[in-house]
Automatic annotation (TrEMBL):
InterPro entries: 3-oxo-5_a-steroid_4-DH_C, SRD5A/TECR. Keywords: Differentiation, Endoplasmic reticulum, Lipid metabolism, Membrane, Microsome, NADP, Oxidoreductase, Transmembrane, Transmembrane helix. It comes from Daphoenositta chrysoptera. This is S5A1 dehydrogenase. PROSITE patterns: S5A_REDUCTASE.
Amino acid sequence: RALIFPLLIREGKPTPFFTFVLALLFCVFNGYLQGRSLTTYATYPPGWLGDSRFITGFFGWLIGMGINIHSDHILRNLRKPGETGYKIPRGGMFGYVTGANFFGEILEWFGFALACCTIESLAFALCTLFILGSRARQHHK
């Protein structure tokens, strides 16, 4: 999402370079932490891919990603080219929650955490919840 979404945006407010660098560093650090955790420290019993925790987590991740992608599509297409002003998104999960894109991403990473069952994946899911939860609350207000 960090690489694809910005490339698909038609128009928008410019992002300050410092904010971009911080986001990039976070993604690189988190990617390293998750990858290192899964490849070096995590051990799984035989048959883990058939375990209910993995299956439930995988489907949570998949559904969350689908919600996130669909919600981003709705947000990208809120305004016609050249149009400005605030618009309320409609459709998809936006009928149920104000920040459907945030909800999808939170669900995605809690599903990932359940599928992986590592402290690092849980830490990332909790960070996502607190950061995106606060952003969702601001958007709702």
